[in-house]
Structures are given as C-alpha cells and as structure tokens.
Amino acid sequence: TQNNAIIDSNLVYSFGPLSNTCWLWDGIYVGDGNGVAVTNNIVVAAIDAGAGIQFNGEQAIQPNFPSNEILSNNDVVNIPGDGIYISCWLAGTCNNNVVTNNILYFVDQIYFGSNPLLRGGGGNIFLHANAGAFGGNNLYSNNLIYYTAIETPQNILAPGQTLVNTVNSNPLFVNNTGNATGNYQPQPESPAIAAGTSTGCPRRDFSGNPRTGVCSVGAYAPSVAAPVAPTNLTVTAVN
After folding, report:
1. Which of 17, 80, 169, 227 is least surrounded, with the fewest CB atoms within 10 Å of its CB?
2. Which conformational region is residue 101 in: left (phi greater than 0), alpha (psi within -120 to 50 degrees), or beta?
3. Which residues, 6 or more positions from 177, have their beta carbon under 8 angstroms from its beta carbon?
C-alpha cells in the first residue's frame, strides 16, 4: 500500500482504448493508498470511454479506501467517459477526501471532429458507493464544469454527497485544441482565476510557478504580465 503518494504536474493524453486483456484505460488510476494527492495534472483526449481520473478500491488493501485523498487543480478535457470517478467499493466508510479546484471541460462527450455531440453515459463527477458508503466529511468544492453537448451532462453523486461552489462557465483556455497540443492556461478574463479554495490548493502550478493570492481553479496559476516600460520620460538635472 502506497501512502502519501504525490501524482503531480503530468500531461496525460490519448490514453486507451480498452483491450481484451487490460481494463486500466483511465488517464490516472489510483487503486489503493492513504493520503494520496493528485494535483496539477492535465488529462486530455481519451480514445475510449474511461475516466479522466479514477479512485477505485476494488482491489485495495487499505481499509476505507479512498479516504484522506486530495484531488485538486487538475484539468480534465475531452473525455468521453467520466471526468472524475470515485468508488467506495469495499465495505467501510470513505471519508475526508478533498476534490477541489478542478476543471472538467467537455467531459462525458463523444467527439466528431471538433464538435462534442453525444453523451458518453457517465458523469462529470461520478461518486459510486458500492459495498461501502461515503462519509459526511468529504469536500467537493470550487470545481469548474463546462460543456456544450446536445444532452446536458450530469454529476452522479452517492447519497449524502454534494457539490458546492461549482462554476459553470467556459474556462477560456488560451488555446483549447482538445488534445495534447493545446495551451490550457487561463486567459486574463477566465472565470477560473481566483475562483478556487485554499483547501487542497498546491503551492505551485503545472509549470512550477508559485500560486499566490486566492487560488485559481485548474492546473495553471494565471500568468503575471511584465510591467510596461514607461515612455516619454523627462530628466531634470538637480544641482
């Protein structure tokens, strides 16, 4: 069992498809552990209907997995299946998890060219209580969820679980290509800027830049423009 593992600042793209011998078709899959942190990752362009990020205790040894996990400030983009899937698979209580400041963009969609047209049948955030139950101290806050599909995508939540402070606006990436070539930094007018919570917010972003002030949603902290040099200055000599 791996405790306190950190999965940070990875670009995961074009993963899948499902084969006859392997069901691990998700971008990031965590199957056991305590205190695992999944932060600042960009997960984009799944080939098949797996999840962008999945915590699943089907084969876990750690009791009450997943508990005490952090899933924050990730960008999950262009995923036909679930954006974030968390399963309380085994008997027990899954509690004290933090799911904050994530961007889920065009999730649960099937793309035709550059157009998201159909739902893939999952959820943006899917919380599945199997033999276990989710406790009352899990936090799902300040996530940005945006979509443009014919059908309205859904969040599928286990009993007693609630999303709070969700932003339903276009994150305004600098260049959203829907694949690994995109630039997923926020434009200056992005609603993701300063829209996060300090809970779960990592100290640095995907590029290693420090996060200062109010935490922004997503893998990138906003860029700080260099000051403009003054012009037309007059120099006066002082005797």
Report:
1. 227
2. left
3. none
Nearest Cα to 39, choosing from 124, 105, 99?
Answer: 99
The DSSP H or E segment spanning 87 is: strand 84-88
pLDDT in tens, 111-143: 444 444 444 556 789 999 999 999 999 999 999
DSSP code, position 76:
E
Supply the pTM of this predicted model.
0.88
Q: Is the dihedral of CA 2, 43, 149, 189 positive or negative?
A: positive
Stretch 167-182: mean pLDDT: 95
The answer for residues whose C-beta is within 8 angstroms of residue 178's C-beta and 6 or more apart is: 44, 45, 77, 78, 106, 111, 114
Instruction: Please tell me the distance from the alpha carbon of residue 52 to that of residue 104, in angstroms, as a whole number.
Output: 9
Cα angle 61-67-70, degrees, rounded to a multiple of 5: 120
* Spatial CA neighbour of 206 closest among 13, 9, 26, 33: 9
As beta bridge partners, residue 39 has 8, 72
pLDDT of residue 228: 54
On the 0-12 / 13-18 / 19+ scale of CB atoms within 10 A, 63 is middle
Report which DSSP code applies to 188: T
Contacts of 72 (CB under 8 A, 6+ apart): 37, 38, 39, 98, 99, 100, 101, 102, 199, 200, 201, 202
The whole-number pLDDT of residue 16 equals 79
Query: How long is the chain?
Result: 239
State how far the Cα of 47 lies from the Cα of 13, in Å rounded to an integer: 9
